Inverse folding.
DNA sequence: CCAAAACTTCACCGAACGGCAAACTGATCT
DNA sequence: AGATCAGTTTGCCGTTCGGTGAAGTTTTGG
């Protein structure tokens, strides 16, 4: 499933551009055609179509053509994937902070008790797990 | 507060590059120096420094120099901001889906009651869940 | 003091990006 | 049929991006 990694890749790349994030915002409020999407921003149809293609490659949007009109719809699954990535890293960071805090607290207790001053700082800079 | 918008902008742009996301992953596990960060990826120090600058502009990372060594640390607040953006849009989308579902359900009730026979299944093939 | 370590700056390269105008392709309207 | 509308494709342009090698700069170890 390295494909997932690459897909996440394209999803974040798609979200990198402010215009494309605005498109996502617009689509989260309801489906829209290429023309409807292009009109609020001052960009031409070809450019908008390119943005849509990028969003589709990132799995964020899908679109279908009916007659001469292409309608775009938001694909919330991919947003969820990016969200999951972010939350995972926030969680990892917070876990690290908790460990650090516990470590400091242990030191303070030791200091208060005034017992053996073997603070054991094996955590000078490294400490991966 | 348009400044927040631009900051979010740079944060997403920073996360667009896979190498930079890997840096974030690495830093979520603990602080690291420029050299330590560069070593796992096959890139030179100048390149790594550039990535760090991008992550700093996005507010994702901060770094400080002690002696001849620069140590980088993850700044979880910005991750949270990006996360909040994503969740807001997922929520908006889901609210929209709920409204749509309610609408369809109301119609079905109408159809069952045998009232106005305008069953209009505008829902030709969509509405997966 | 001298050399090595660890960045940092600089100048440059090729690829990718966002944008456009113009020409083309199918619907849809009159 | 002819005009029009909504995309779509193509080719181009200037900028930004990720990456490099070479030449500084500042600490640090001997």
């Amino acid at each position: 499933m390295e494909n997932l990694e690459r897909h996440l890749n394209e999803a974040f790349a798609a979200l990198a551009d402010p215009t494309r994030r605005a498109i996502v915002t617009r689509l989260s409020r309801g489906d829209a055609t290429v023309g409807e999407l292009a009109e609020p921003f001052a960009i031409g149809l070809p450019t908008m179509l390119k943005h849509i293609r990028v969003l589709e490659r990132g799995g964020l949007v899908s679109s279908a053509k009916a007659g001469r009109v292409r309608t775009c719809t938001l694909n919330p699954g991919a947003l969820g994937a990016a969200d999951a990535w972010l939350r995972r890293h926030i969680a990892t960071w917070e876990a690290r902070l908790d460990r650090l805090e516990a470590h400091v607290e242990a030191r303070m207790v030791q200091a208060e008790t005034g017992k053996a001053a073997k603070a054991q700082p094996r955590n000078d800079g490294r400490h991966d797990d």
